[in-house]
Amino acid sequence: MDSCVMLPSRVTVSANMSAKAVLLVGGAQKGTRFRPLSLGLPKPLFPVAGLPLIEHHIEQLCECKALTEILLLGFYPSEEFTHFIECAKKKYGIHIEYLEENAPSGTAGGLLRFRDRILQPTKGKETEYVFVLNADICGDLPITDLLDEIKRQPDAEAVLLTTEATRDQASNFGCLVVDPKSKKVLHYVEKPSTFVSITISCGIFILRPNFWPNQLERAEAEAGGNGTLWYETDVFPQMASDGKLYALHTTRWWSQTKTPAGALYANGHYLRLYRVKCPERLAKSSPQIIGDVFIDPTAVVDPTAKIGPNVSIGAGAVIGAGVRVRESIILPECVLEEHCCVLHAVVGWRSILEPWTRVEGTPIAPNPNVPFAKLDNKPLFNGDGRLNPSLTILGSNVRVLRELVILNTVVLPYKELSTSKHNQIIL
């Protein structure tokens, strides 16, 4: 798939100015909320709107003309990213490299450990600014605005991107109190137990090189040098006290992708973003294509199938006659035989739905009547031990026999379903 034309940067870039970006991709951990979709693939590479999650970040970062290098930092085995990196380097014409941690060291520990590599000059240019992004967020990111803002704030060692949440939801995020005139962060608390502010961190920030000696090394010394540092708890609160942390507020779309529901929600928004920035990526509207739909060029879709809105169909998928798909992600090499119905679901790689099957989940979205409401990333089970209503998720290589109904169910890979399932986890 061709990349869309990048918008020109609004930043006036000096000849010797250089910026880098670090994507914090994390690593495989027990009990991840993204399973079963992350069992055979690192979560940052999960395809949303036809692209791996972190490729959306890379694409938006490349709008910054000062950017010389993108570094992926995490503790997944490096070989899991090799193919993606080689393809992305060719596609975007920028150096991309994976830095592998030996073990989890917190969100800031890896930044400290790889300090010399991150700040290393590139093409004879000193590194003046470093973007840092969590991989499990998504949005229409104002990358060049962040660079503009830190240039306007000479005292800032870091500028955080912030947005707004509801009063009830704000405590699920890092909360900030910001001076509205100076944009200086006066107070930062990660997931406070009592209400602090409706201004929350987006998990994206830009740093100056003096952040490393002035903040990370200090935080490491205070933590006893154990090698584990968290910018949310060990670094940003003290920076706010020191007056070195600033904020840039955005009202653009932003969300998290910690769960499959978050990925499906992001899918719809990225498709909507395509409509504005690169409409050639979307399937052409027709009586059978409703709203924003991405169909990989190698997928085969019967002309009688009705698709959309907010649907992505992956490479090599086969969609049969009379199929209906809405608000769903169909992953590569799936086969949906004639007259299947898939609603609010993710169908895993190489899964097969036999004729007349219905796979349906519960719609998951923020409250549309509440401004700035965010998606609730609920756990699988409620306080009574019952399964929360959610998407239906089929892991890879699942087969659903004909005329069955699969409702609000999570199915692990390599299962064959011969009876209907409602509100279950199929192990």
Automatic annotation (TrEMBL):
<dbReference type="InterPro" id="IPR050486">
    <property type="entry name" value="Mannose-1P_guanyltransferase"/>
</dbReference>
<feature type="domain" description="Nucleotidyl transferase">
    <location>
        <begin position="20"/>
        <end position="255"/>
    </location>
</feature>
<dbReference type="Pfam" id="PF00483">
    <property type="entry name" value="NTP_transferase"/>
</dbReference>
<dbReference type="InterPro" id="IPR018357">
    <property type="entry name" value="Hexapep_transf_CS"/>
</dbReference>
<protein>
    <submittedName>
        <fullName>(pine wood nematode) hypothetical protein</fullName>
    </submittedName>
</protein>
<dbReference type="GO" id="GO:0016740">
    <property type="term" value="F:transferase activity"/>
</dbReference>
<dbReference type="InterPro" id="IPR029044">
    <property type="entry name" value="Nucleotide-diphossugar_trans"/>
</dbReference>
<comment type="similarity">
    <text>Belongs to the transferase hexapeptide repeat family.</text>
</comment>
<dbReference type="Pfam" id="PF25087">
    <property type="entry name" value="GMPPB_C"/>
</dbReference>
<dbReference type="InterPro" id="IPR005835">
    <property type="entry name" value="NTP_transferase_dom"/>
</dbReference>
<dbReference type="InterPro" id="IPR056729">
    <property type="entry name" value="GMPPB_C"/>
</dbReference>
<feature type="domain" description="Mannose-1-phosphate guanyltransferase C-terminal">
    <location>
        <begin position="289"/>
        <end position="426"/>
    </location>
</feature>
